[in-house]
Amino acid sequence: MGSTGGATLESEKRIRSRLKRRTVLKLGAMATAAVGAAIGVPKVETTRTVAAHNLPPDQFGSPTYDAVLRADGGVKGIFQSPHVEAAVPAGKVLNHLLLVQLKNWLNGFEFSYQMAPGDLHTVVATYASANLFTYADAAWERYRLGEKYGLTDPETGAPATRNVFWSSRFGLDASRDPENPQGFYQDVGIEALQQRGTVFLT
User: Fold this and answer.
1) Which pLDDT score, from 0 to 100, does residue 73 have?
2) Residues 143, 137: contact at Cβ < 8 Å?
3) In whole angstroms, what is the distance from residue 26 CA to residue 56 CA?
4) Is there a domain that residue 55 lies in?
5) How far apart are CA 174 and CA 201, in angstroms?
6) 149: Cα separation from own chain's centroid
């Protein structure tokens, strides 16, 4: 009996403690609201609704980007990456996994599914450090981007001072034989992928 009475007393203390905390929180909220009113902070009801940003054709995009958006038929592929560091050395070049994936996607649809190149509409949307894909050599050199992101230029063995992902790996006049390992269809340089119709966005 005595233990039950003690438990009841303990419960009452906990309830009182909670009530005190709630009272303090309510008073604090009331004080904050009063200060806000005094200094002219707008109420929730007066805030504006902001529309989501979009990229309607012909307003913000380039003609090539608009063409990809408006393409009717075929297959559309969007590739994205936030990490420029997802790069792997391949001999005297540095390849990025996203660009390898894109090349494989294009080859799969063109040669396995026999789709016309003009029916493959691809966009690369980079963000964060992967925006470096679209930066010119001058930016890489001036801001020492290779050093900042730990990207070594395989040609020099030093931190990259140029966009190591840009140039065609085998030349734009390379063999068009899809079986040739050093041909156009195995090229993961951005320059070559643009030749295949890919649009790069930052």
Assistant:
1) 81
2) no
3) 47
4) no
5) 26
6) 16
Residues of the chain whose pLDDT is less than 70? Answer: 1-62, 64-65, 69
Same domain as 121, residue 146: yes
Strands 199-201 and 120-126, by their bridges, are parallel
Per DSSP (E only), the strands in the chain are 75-81, 87-90, 93-96, 120-126, 199-201
Q: Which domain holds residue 97?
A: 63-201
To the question of pTM greater than 0.90 for the whole model, the response is: no
Q: Say which residues have a Cβ less than 8 Å from residue 82's Cβ, sequence separation at least 6.
A: 126, 127, 128, 129, 130
CB 69 within 8 A of CB 50: no
Rounded to a whole number of angstroms, the distance between the first and last alpha carbons of the chain is 74
162 DSSP 8-state letter: S
How many structural domains is the chain composed of?
A: 2
The backbone region for 144, taken as left when phi is positive above 0, alpha when psi lies in -120 to 50, beta otherwise, is left
Per-residue pLDDT of 16-27, as tens digits, reads 555 555 554 555
Q: What is the pLDDT of residue 72?
A: 77
In a domain, 52, yes or no: no
pLDDT for position 32: 45
